[in-house]
Structures are given as C-alpha cells and as structure tokens.
Amino acid sequence: MQYDHIVVRYGELTLKGKNRKIFTTKLGENVREKLKGFSNIKVNKNRDRMFILLNGEDPEPILEKLKDVFGIGSMSVALKTENDEAAIKNAALELLTKKENVKTFKITTKRSNKEFPIGSQTFNHVLGGYLLSNTNDFTVDVHHPDLEIHVDIRNDATYITSEKILGAGGLPVGSSGKTLLLLSGGIDSPVAGYLTMNRGVQLEAIHFHSPPYTSERAKEKVLDLAEKLTYYGKNIRIHMIPFTALQQKIHREVPHGYSMTVMRRVMLKISEAVAKEENILSITTGESLGQVASQTMESMHAINEVTNYPVLRPLVAMDKEDIIKISEKINMYDISIRPYEDCCTVFVPKAPKTKPRLEKVLQFEAHLDYEQEIKELLANKEVIETSSLRKKSKEFDDLL
Ligand code: ATP
Ligand code: MG
C-alpha cells in the first residue's frame, strides 16, 4: 500500500469566519514555500482542508517539514478513492491489514457529500462489517481502538486516514502583519520572535552593535539566530545599527546608575523610527518581568515612556527555564549561548538603578540631544536579508 496524499487540517484559523480565505491563502503560500524542494508534489487547498498529492514522494520528510509550519492543526497520510462503496471498502481493508500491532479498530465516517447514498452512521456499520468478514484477527472497539479509521466522503472524492500528527498550531506567518523584533544574541529575544510568529506575525529584526567593542563573531551569531528563525517563517530583514558613538555619548554624559535606562530608551526610539520607516506597526522584545535590572516594573515604565508604539513582550510572564526549553526545542539555544559580547553588556554600568525615576531619566536625557546622531545612524545602518545568507549556509540547505 502506498499513501497517495497528505491531508492537512487547519488549526485555529478555521474560527476566522470571513477572513478565513486570507488565512488559508497565506498557509497555502507558506506550505508551498516550505515544500519547494519536492518537485513531484501538488498542493491543493479549499475552505477546510489542504490536500497534498504525493505523486510517489515519500510522505515522511514532507510531514517532518510541515510540523514547523504555523497554522496547521493536524495532518494525516491518506488514501484517496472515488466516492464508491466498493473502492472505499478496498482501500480501508488495505489500510487496516498493512498496519502492525493492531488488533482493534473503529470506523468514523464523515459524509459531507449528501449524494453519497449511505448515511455516516450506517456506513460505519457497513464498512466495519466488511472489514470483520474479510479478516480474521481484528475486533471492533469503539472506546479504545488501536486504530481509528476516518472516512471523509467529500464532494469530489473520499479520503481514508488513520493517525493524526499534531501540527504546530497558531496562525500562518504573514497573516497578522509584521513586527520589528529587537534581536540580541541572547536566549530570550529569538524565543520572543518565535512565539510572535506563532500568532501569524512576520518578523523584521533590528540589532544594535558596537564595533570594535563587539566583534564580527557576535554579529554572525545574531545572523545565525535570524537564519534559524527564518525556518519557521519567511525571509527576515535585519537592520544592523552601529551604536558605538551614541553609547559612548550616553556613557560619558549620563550618571552611570541611569545610563542603562537611557540607553534602552534610545534603542526603543531608534526602533520606533525604523518601524515607522518600514510601515511596521509594533515592536517586540524578549523582556521578561524581573529578569534583570532593566526589566523591573519601574524600569519598564521608565523605558517604555519614550514611545507610544505598541511594544509586544511575549515572554513577560514566563520563567527562564520555560524560555530555555523553547529555545532548545527550536534549535536556538546552542547559538544563543556562544560566549560573545553584546553591545548592552559592554557598556552596562556596575550598578544600574533597578528602580529608576522617570523625572530623573528625563532630566538626564534632556542634555543629551541625540536626534542628530539618530539621523546619522539610520542613514548608516546596514540591512541584511536572511535569504541572502541562506545561499552560504550548507546547514540551512540541509534543514530546508
Ligand atoms: P536576550 O536574551 O534576548 O538578550 P536578556 O535577558 O539578555 O535578553 P536584556 O539584555 O536586558 O535581556 O535585553 C532585553 C531585550 O532587549 C532583549 O530581549 C532584546 O529584545 C533587546 N535587546 C537587548 N540587546 C539588544 C541588541 N544588542 N540589539 C537588539 N535588541 C537588543
Ligand atoms: Mg541580552
């Protein structure tokens, strides 16, 4: 027996009413993009399912790739038949007898094609009876079967499936707009990016670096992380911001207890400018409440005051251990722990204020006059796309 299709069931997007088409179209695009290495297959989608015609391709590596596509609820390999009783019986018999370690089964028929002459309950009995009388070793168990055979009788054809493989869930990347992710080389921000993608958001990234205090290898680390993130979504544009001069100025002119707060505010200000320039409607960070000095409630309040742009913090209520688990699951962790310096740690004061007072922040910042520097630095920023990195990365090709 050779499965001829993979049936893909949509996840949460089936709840989306009139907008459903936007979501299914995005998912179709993302699935085609993900599977472009499989030249024989054909992807067809309709309102409630996607059908991938295998044309002889092995389903396993395809399923492996689809597991990471957001917007998929579940998947199954399938046998397609005509809407014909005898054909369905044959296919179901083949499926049952080729399975190993199966003693009990159950049939679940769904008949959306009302022209098919037998109702779904009756067909469960008809097909069950047929399978029992054409085999010796099986019994029916409707409560805890070893194998549940699903028969989906649709308008154009019938699909027979058994096991469901869980998809990544969430919404298709690109269906909820874009965010600008503040991407450091740490553990948290790539996880924040991943979780945001899970809600259908496409990423663009911004990274602040301070050469020569931060090295080429620190920059490479960030690009490697962005590249890994691409695996779960689309091409990512990374805005590399040369931050040295401005950081030095902050370091020189702001009392050290407050320099970190001011530096974070300036980072947000620059991020807001880039987001506006790129028509991106939100900023995302990897901040988690209470993790470090800049992430106390008082710090977040003082830092956030600089912008009225929406700042998404998907990790805000998560424990570090849980963040690390996700980081490992998505293969970021080993990159994140490479020991290279980050611009924010190079200039971080020994004792940053954990409860900065906003009026003081504003007072110190008033002397700083950084508008001109921001303009220059935006003019000098480098934009790198992960699609251009991909060609260089053998590891990534293997992943794709
Ligand atoms: P991460 O693990 O993401 O680096 P962290 O726990 O080290 O986070 P911070 O260094 O305080 O915490 O950074 C908080 C957030 O600020 C990061 O999650 C990231 O979104 C942003 N950030 C920090 N450094 C940079 C940087 N050099 N470029 C861009 N964003 C940064
Ligand atoms: Mg960090």
UniProtKB/TrEMBL annotation:
Its EC number is 2.8.1.4. Residues 60-164 form the THUMP domain. ATP binds at L182, L183, H207, F208, R264, G286, Q295. One of its GO terms (biological process) is thiamine diphosphate biosynthetic process. It comes from the Bacteria. InterPro entries: Rossmann-like_a/b/a_fold, ThiI_AANH, ThiI_fer, ThiI_N, THUMP_dom, THUMP_ThiI, tRNA_STrfase, tRNA_sulfurtransferase_ThiI. One of its GO terms (molecular function) is CCA tRNA nucleotidyltransferase activity. It catalyses: [ThiS sulfur-carrier protein]-C-terminal Gly-Gly-AMP + S-sulfanyl-L-cysteinyl-[cysteine desulfurase] + AH2 = [ThiS sulfur-carrier protein]-C-terminal-Gly-aminoethanethioate + L-cysteinyl-[cysteine desulfurase] + A + AMP + 2 H(+); [ThiI sulfur-carrier protein]-S-sulfanyl-L-cysteine + a uridine in tRNA + 2 reduced [2Fe-2S]-[ferredoxin] + ATP + H(+) = [ThiI sulfur-carrier protein]-L-cysteine + a 4-thiouridine in tRNA + 2 oxidized [2Fe-2S]-[ferredoxin] + AMP + diphosphate. Keywords: ATP-binding, Cytoplasm, Nucleotide-binding, RNA-binding, Thiamine biosynthesis, Transferase, tRNA-binding. NCBIfam families: tRNA uracil 4-sulfurtransferase ThiI (TIGR00342). Catalyzes the ATP-dependent transfer of a sulfur to tRNA to produce 4-thiouridine in position 8 of tRNAs, which functions as a near-UV photosensor. Also catalyzes the transfer of sulfur to the sulfur carrier protein ThiS, forming ThiS-thiocarboxylate. This is a step in the synthesis of thiazole, in the thiamine biosynthesis pathway. The sulfur is donated as persulfide by IscS. This is Probable tRNA sulfurtransferase. It comes from Saliterribacillus persicus. The lineage of its organism: Bacteria, Bacillati, Bacillota, Bacilli, Bacillales.
